[in-house]
């Protein structure tokens, strides 16, 4: 799916700002047929939960309504008029002047609604968006909803971050020509110093397709006619970690001697490959240094914010990180575009978090019911999962910063039924994108002896909490078990191994001269212990700490003001471990460190 952008043949109008807002119990019958009642307004883009002080809104489970008047530019006569939502969490139904015009399920991928037959250029219409935040066993991510004795709906979910909802990303009205470019797919490779750009263009309407590739100075370096082909770039400048270089692919659709549509795609020429136990970018071994992150900030919730994007990536640069994982859902596309421009390596993760009822059994991993069954995660769940994977890869396939797809976080890969559930998803991902490696984050109670799906993937990514949930306060024992755990995977598989989660909750300002959990000293010591072990294994290809910054979670006595495993606080102040980590990551580049590093 092409992201809307202004071109000589396309225009867009931002609908970000303040919208009228109401929850379902106060909205009346069919609220899309009239102005919403009440004075409330909500900011877009932002989650709605923390914008209001009313707990009935923050904790609301069900439908809410957003509404505003929209002016259609008068110059769009003869064009298709589309409405683009970069994300609506988790389900949306869209109405124009009371008429249902579109719907979408899935909270982290974009969708378009074609309004051409429902609106008139030069006039206004009333736009109403119904948003449902409920998660079930057949959604991605999953959850359950129950009612209390007082008739209040309560949402339960199996992931450890707050279920922020609403319209967290941008909304646009945009125009496209009747005959237009529908999609562009680009993959890159190399022959010696020549870069090869394979492209495929899909169009609506007949016409002649031309493509031209331009360098960062605007000079044309290659061109072709046709809806598919290969562009050769002699002495190509490569997109490198920490040293991004982007070309621009200029795509035009011609009819009767004139250009009827024009679209451009930024292109980074680079290769990604897993060879034995190495992860290679441009044929060179790469070592991941970075974090699992969250789209999370005070008041905005999961609302995208360009200021946080800039500041967070500045902190990544300060600490000498080179990568992050979009845990546990696809991030806003602006994040990937920024990573493209600045050479940040991204592991792009689906929203398949919580596909594991074993978490209800604690660290023993004994589920009260099977994770995979007709009553739990079933064929309908798998179908929703497959659709999410299609939408994610369709959106992010052309980003050079994305070097690997992470298809799930901590699934029940040790349970019966896991292979039948995940194998078709793996096959689908490889069919949609055969160029990028695949991984998933392995839950702590899945091990070499009981994991049923690891052989389907290219990289073994471990989430492990030795020294925190296991052997808390006993780093000597934690180190022994961590070393044994990594050794087991290294001995069993000729694959790269990395750590995608490790860390300890840390209260800023808590200190101790002993190994006292929650102190800043303990967080530093726990990370140092992990790093000693990592450096012993040549097969180890990366360390991504949980988490970049503290983040909000659901209410619970073990989560006081959220998850505190951040190296930075929620407002991005460094804890003591940040300075230790900065020194470690500065000592080596993008190559594997050794025990002496």
From TrEMBL:
InterPro entries: Beta-gal/glucu_dom_sf, Galactose-bd-like_sf, GH, Glyco_hydro_2, Glyco_hydro_2_cat, Glyco_hydro_2_CS, Glyco_hydro_2_N, Ig-like_fold. Residues 180-270 form the Glycoside hydrolase family 2 immunoglobulin-like beta-sandwich domain. One of its GO terms (molecular function) is carbohydrate binding. Residues 272-587 form the Glycoside hydrolase family 2 catalytic domain. Its EC number is 3.2.1.31. Residues 14-177 form the Glycosyl hydrolases family 2 sugar binding domain. Signal peptide: none annotated. It holds the Pfam family Glyco_hydro_2. It is an enzyme of class 3 (hydrolase). GO terms for biological process: carbohydrate metabolic process; glucuronoside catabolic process. Keywords: Glycosidase, Hydrolase. NCBIfam families: PRK10150.1. Belongs to the glycosyl hydrolase 2 family. This is Beta-glucuronidase. The lineage of its organism: Bacteria, Bacillati, Actinomycetota, Actinomycetes, Micrococcales.
